[in-house]
Amino acid sequence: MPRVSASLNTVIEEIWLDLTGGNSPSQLTRDFTYQGPLVTEFPTLKVVIENMLSNALRYADTKKPSHIICVKSEPDDCGVKISFTDNGIGISKGNIPKVFKCSDGWVTAVVMG
Length: 113
Description:
By secondary structure, this protein is α+β, with helices and mostly antiparallel strands. The protein has helices at 8-20, 42-58, 96-99; strands at residues 4-6, 27-32, 38-40, 68-76, 79-86, 100-103, 106-109. The chain has one domain: Heat Shock Protein 90 (2-Layer Sandwich). Helices cover 30% and strands 33% of the residues. It has a three-stranded mixed sheet with strand order 2-4-5, with helices on one face. It has a two-stranded antiparallel ribbon with strand order 1-3. It has a two-stranded antiparallel ribbon with strand order 6-7. Mean pLDDT is 84; it is low at 103-113.
């Protein structure tokens, strides 16, 4: 797959609008320390971001007064690190090995959809 330049903020905004229709009680925040464009396989980036955001929306904790999803980007030795956090129900310890794989020092989220 060819690598292309993409704006993380633009990709996130488009996916958020697709997932929520612009009408969601969840709040999306961004903390972008890395401001540059991403050079990546665009379809792969889009699938990963869509899965992370849709899972965060799906597993909101309805007992909490607000649901906040934060996307963070920061420079990394290998380029850029993108992380997703939210105050949803979380992943049980027993399911973490099913969702995340670790090999050669890399932690990879398994994309489920």
